[in-house]
Amino acid sequence: MTDRSGEIANAGGPVRHVPVMLNEVLAALEPGPGSVIVDGTFGAGGYSAAIAATGASVVAIDRDPDAIRNGAAVVELSGGRITLKQGRFSALDEIAIACGHEQVDGVVLDVGVSSMQIDEAERGFSFQKDGPLDMRMEQAGPTAADVVNKAAQNDLIRIIGILGEEKQASRIARAIVDRRGAMPFTRTLDLATLIEKVIGRKPGDRIHPATRTFQALRIFVNRELEELAEALCAAERILKAGGRLVVVSFHSLEDRIVKRFMGERSKSGGGSRHMPQAAGEAASFDQPGKAMIAASDNEAVENPRARSAKLRMAVRLAGPARKGGIESVSLPRLANLSQFAQTGGAGHVSHA
Ligand SMILES: C[S@@+](CC[C@H](N)C(=O)[O-])C[C@H]1O[C@@H](n2cnc3c(N)ncnc32)[C@H](O)[C@@H]1O
Asked: Is 129 touching ligand 1 by the criterion CB < 6 Å?
């Protein structure tokens, strides 16, 4: 399913991120005085502030330097309960240990982009506001423009087709490659206009034709699926017995990873097509209650972003983390992002 970033961008004006499924997150995490919770996706600090208000200590992480800068006020108001670090949630166990916590009581992830990121045209996430074709949450590494201008046509087809679930990926990739030789892409609206021209817009279409391609580029540029899979394994390593892992995700690619991970880790021993090495290992998580919770109808009406939200929760069991790493969730095989890194020169533009 495509996420609803477009609707946020539609709203116009600065948008402050409204935390999604906050009550459900708190109910699933059960924070309280004395507990230590890792919030891997600080964003505007909505979850962190609410968790800290229960008396818990929070190790909050965000990869976006803007989120860290803008988070100072939330940290200040927490009276020392929130420690905010810039970093990736794939390293959440190392970050928690560096903050003095060998084990924690809970880990929460609210994956994807924040309203502030989408709303700020200069970040290059929006296909409705013109900005540089950037999309890097971390503001470092290869940009979406690097990928669009340098990736081989076949790689673009796979990125757009798999990460955007875009049926017209071949036509879009061909049009990109045909155009970039004469004039490389540098702006979001330029790319969005080309995509609209290539695949058209049916009357009554609720989403912009560029939505799926932009989603794909964003996920690819930020290695979002790998990050998520690695974060789940990091949470498994750092959670104490009885500790809770809570993940809110916004499209099927992410939810599938969380569902698969929690399912595999909750089975004792059997092993599977995705995780044959698990045979003989004990379960490391239990999944009590409903496997997946969606946002309430009220919240979905009030906050469009909540409409596609899915919350999954698992409780850490005693015993070691499973040996299998991110291969257990079988991520799609795509081009290596690092090949698009700038070398300081003009950069090679492939016409393959
Ligand atoms: C949906 S927002 C979180 C909103 C937050 N729950 C709140 O209440 O304000 C997602 C945030 O996670 C951050 N993020 C996404 N992927 C990340 C990663 N791999 N490591 C660290 N932060 C990440 C983004 O920069 C963004 O600020």
From this structure: no
